[in-house]
Design a protein that fits this description.
The protein is an alpha+beta fold and about 140 residues long. It has a single domain, classed as 2-Layer Sandwich (Tetrahydropterin Synthase, Chain A). The protein contains 4 helices and 5 strands; from the N terminus they run E-H-E-H-E-H-H-E-E. The longest helix has 16 residues. The radius of gyration is 17 Å and the shape is elongated.
């Protein structure tokens, strides 16, 4: 029998600015447009895990433990931050959703005990989201 997948959603607000300090303002604007200015988003972070169902609980994951891992290691760093300035992992990296999902994966995967991290989905706007499956694909 295949294992079920369960998704928990988290929310945080953060700002970011795309650009390169060694580029001119014109080049940053040509490359990143309005995103070369500091701007923010109300993010929705979806964490999907999978694993065998514990016959005693009927659950494949302890949602309280998952919540603790995500809040202590991801939300606490990102919420109300300017990502590229406040989160050391982003030094030398653009604060894109593509990089953010990789950061989230790294912060969560090693701390998971039992269930396996399957997918990280970050919703930046109602019409833009990024999925990351780590080594699952």
């Amino acid at each position: 029998m295949a294992n079920p997948y369960i998704t928990k959603v988290f929310h945080f607000c953060a700002a970011h600015q795309y650009g390169h300090g060694d580029w001119s303002a014109e080049r940053n604007w040509e490359t990143f447009g309005p995103d070369a200015r500091v701007h923010g988003h109300n993010y929705a972070l979806e964490i999907t895990v999978t694993g065998p169902v514990n016959p005693d609980t009927g659950f494949c994951v302890d949602l309280g433990e998952l919540k603790k891992i995500v809040e202590e290691n991801v939300i606490s760093q990102l919420d109300h931050s300017q990502i590229e300035k406040d989160v050391p992992w982003f030094e030398g990296k653009q604060p894109s959703s593509e990089n953010m999902v990789q950061f989230v994966w790294e912060e969560i995967e090693a701390r998971m005990k039992g269930p396996r991290l399957y997918r990280v989905r970050l919703r930046e706007t109602p019409t833009i989201f990024t999925d990351y499956y780590g080594r699952n694909i």
